[in-house]
Request: fold
Amino acid sequence: MTIELTLPTMTCGHCVRTVTATVQQVDADAKLQIDLPTHKVQIESSQPEAAFKAALAEEGYAAA
Reply:
């Protein structure tokens, strides 16, 4: 399943690394595409969207 999230607080390379690490903690096999200028993240995973949203929110990247 493809999950699309907008993370308004993701604004730099450090943010991208943190978001990537957080997604991989939820699902190590997840495929991730990040578009930093638009703050969009696409995640290909069998895990539920809520799991990613909760983990990202804990790191300070709440989905809009």
Remarks:
- The chain has a mean pLDDT of 97.
